[in-house]
Write a structure and sequence with these properties.
InterPro entries: GOLGB1 (IPR026202). With 628 residues, this protein is mainly alpha-helical. Helix content is 94%, strand content 0%. The protein starts with a helix and ends with a helix. The N terminus and C terminus are likely disordered.
């Protein structure tokens, strides 16, 4: 730019020097005049654009200055308000702290006085409640004051940030002002140069159109002067064309600069408007926050004044409260003495409780050991029980096998004897007379059948009685078994309770009870085994009895058939004595079967009696153990 201005400054001087020389050559002025006219038009346009640009720059500068002044005024107002608010808040904080200290002192004095005035518990509770309420309010006031101070510090920081931003904006405005001043200076220089060009052009035109002189003067000039003027005119035309080109370049450069300045002004204007809106919003938010804080401070001040009024009203009854405080101190001293005595008693009881806890721990440990021993004994008993059951099962199987073999042998013997008797009967029937056989059979049947029927009825009645007794004994046994199970469960529950520490019996009684229970359990198991054996024998005897009854019925039917056959064959053979002896043998066999059945029923009755004795013994021991 400096080089360009220096060239511009040198151009008019050269033109001024060459212009009077060029006046002598009027013949080469048409091209130069056209170029000068174009240059003049371009200069007029540039002057108009420069004037518009200056006006626009002045307007923007004025708007920026007004906005800057408004922002400065708003900032000063905000700073004044904030300083005022700070002073007010500090004054309020100091007054609140002084009032809080007075409240503390008055609360302590009022609490002491409130403890003496009324001896009732209701007034004392009211004084304590009011003191606690005043303490809570004091704490709330402190918290609110701290919050306000914190918010004020935050607002101060925000204001500092905003002030720094404003300073930055001011610095940018100052830079813009300096830039505009520089532009104005350059524009003034350009205007001066344009004026100089215009003056140079005017002088050139004047020199280009001199008044007409007579041909005699031209003719009088020598040819050398004509050649010099032509050279000067050519130099002038070259200078003018060069200046026109430079003017075009300067014009395009000025247009570019004006466009860039316009864009810069538009962007700066938009940014300035955005920041202005943001500042307005921030100022409005600050105003709202300050109003809220003012309202809160007014509310806190009103609440504090109300509390001060209440405390002043309470302080009127200080004399009565002092008397009440003395009485309460006396009562407190008496209660402290009573509490000391109670504490001593509690210490003694605590020692006893600790010793009892140690005893309980020892008992629990012993009970746990006994439980472990009992579990080991129970496992041993279960193993022995399984072994004995297996042995009993083997014995029952052996006994059943022996009974089965004995029954098979007996059936085989009976079949053989029946076959033999039938053969003998058939042999004797041929020799026995029919009439004697009929009379004997009639007499035998008339004499033996009623006795046999009566005997059979008696045996059936005894069998029913024995079966009923067996069912009763079985029910009693089941009842006794259930009772023993419930008793064992009850004792196990007691043992668990004693282990958990809820029950604390003596160790000796616990051991004796455990040993009694173990003995009773062993006895119960032994009796259960005996009962199982007796029940198995009873089942075997019942089976034998059924077999014998079936054999008796079969033999009776066989006897009737034999007697009928003998009666039918007596008329043919006539051997009555042999038939009578065979009938007597059959009757003996029947009587033997009846006696065997009676023996089986007697054995069943003895077993039932033994079971009833065992049950009675069990019932006698059960209440004794329950009472123990």
């Amino acid at each position: 730019m400096l080089k360009w201005f220096s060239n511009e400054e040198g151009g008019p001087g050269q033109g001024a020097l060459g212009s009077p020389q060029g006046g002598g050559g009027a013949g080469g002025g048409e091209g130069g005049q056209a170029a000068l006219v174009e240059v003049a038009e371009q200069l007029a346009q540039t002057e108009q654009l420069v004037a518009q640009l200056k006006e626009l720059i002045r307007e923007k500068d004025g708007s920026l200055r007004t906005k800057d002044e408004q922002l400065k005024a708003e900032k000063e107002a905000c700073e004044a308000k904030l300083s005022k608010m700070r002073l007010q808040n500090k004054a309020k904080v100091t007054s609140l702290s002084a009032q809080l200290e007075e409240l503390k002192k008055g609360g302590a004095a009022g609490g002491g006085a409130g403890g003496q005035g009324t001896p009732t518990h209701s007034k004392k509770g009211g004084a304590e409640g009011s003191e606690q309420a005043s303490r809570g309010k004091i704490l709330l006031l402190r918290k609110k004051v701290e919050e306000l101070e914190h918010q004020l510090s935050q607002r101060d920081e925000e204001l500092e940030v905003k002030s720094r931003e404003l300073e930055a904006q001011r610095q940018r405005g100052a830079d813009m002002d300096a830039m505009l001043v520089e532009r104005n200076r350059k524009l003034s220089e350009k205007e001066a140069y344009i004026v100089h060009l215009q003056t140079g052009m005017a002088t050139g035109e004047q020199t280009a159109t001199p008044p007409a002189q007579p041909d005699t003067e031209h003719r009088a000039l020598p040819e050398e002067s004509g050649a010099g003027s032509l050279a000067e005119l050519q130099l002038l035309v070259l200078n003018l064309t060069r200046k026109v080109g430079e003017g075009d370049e300067r014009y395009s450069l000025l247009q570019e600069q004006t466009e860039s300045l316009k864009e810069l002004l538009v962007t700066e204007k938009a940014a300035f408007e955005d920041k202005e809106n943001m500042y307005k919003q921030n100022i409005q938010t600050f105003k709202d926050i300050i109003l809220q804080k003012d309202n809160k401070l007014m509310e806190v001040n009103q609440m504090h004044e109300q509390e001060l009024f209440k405390l002043a009203a309470k302080s009127d009854a200080s004399a009565d409260l002092e008397q009440l405080l003395k009485a309460l101190k006396q009562k407190l001293h008496e209660k402290e003495e009573v509490l000391q005595g109670k504490n001593q008693v509690i210490d003694v009881f605590q020692g006893e409780v600790d010793s009892r806890d140690q005893q309980i721990k020892d008992l629990v440990e012993r009970a746990r050991r006994l439980q472990v021993e009992r579990e080991s004994l129970g496992s041993k008993m279960e193993a022995e029980k399984h072994v004995m059951r297996a042995q009993l099962r083997d014995l029952l199987e052996k006994h059943q096998g022996e009974l089965r073999r004995a029954a098979e042998c007996h059936e085989a013997q009976l079949a053989e004897r029946e076959q033999a008797l039938r053969g003998q009967l058939q042999e004797e029937l041929g020799r026995t007379p029919v009439a004697e056989l009929q009379t004997q059979t009639q007499a035998g049947s008339g004499g033996d059948s009623p006795a046999t029927a009566q005997r059979m009825n008696e045996l059936e009645a005894q069998a029913k009685l024995k079966s009923e007794e067996a069912s009763k004994s079985e029910a009693k046994f089941l009842k006794m078994k259930a009772w023993s199970k419930s008793r064992i469960r009850q004792l196990e529950d007691e043992l668990r309770k004693s282990q958990s520490g809820r029950v604390g019996p003596d160790v000796t009684s616990l051991r004796s009870r455990i040993t009694d229970l173990e003995e009773e359990r062993e006895e119960t198991l032994w009796k259960l085994e005996q009962y199982d054996e007796i029940k198995a024998k009873n089942d075997v005897l019942e089976a034998k009895l059924v077999v014998y009854e079936e054999q008796q019925r079969k033999m009776a039917s066989d006897l009737e058939q034999v007697t009928k056959r003998a009666a039918s064959q007596a008329s043919e053979s006539g051997s009555a004595d042999d038939a009578q002896s065979q009938v007597l043998d059959w009757q003996e066999m029947v009587s033997e079967a009846v006696t065997a059945r009676d023996r089986a029923r007697e054995e069943k009755a003895t077993m039932a009696l033994r079971m009833s004795h065992m049950e009675e013994e069990r019932e006698g021991k059960g209440p004794a153990t329950a009472g123990g």
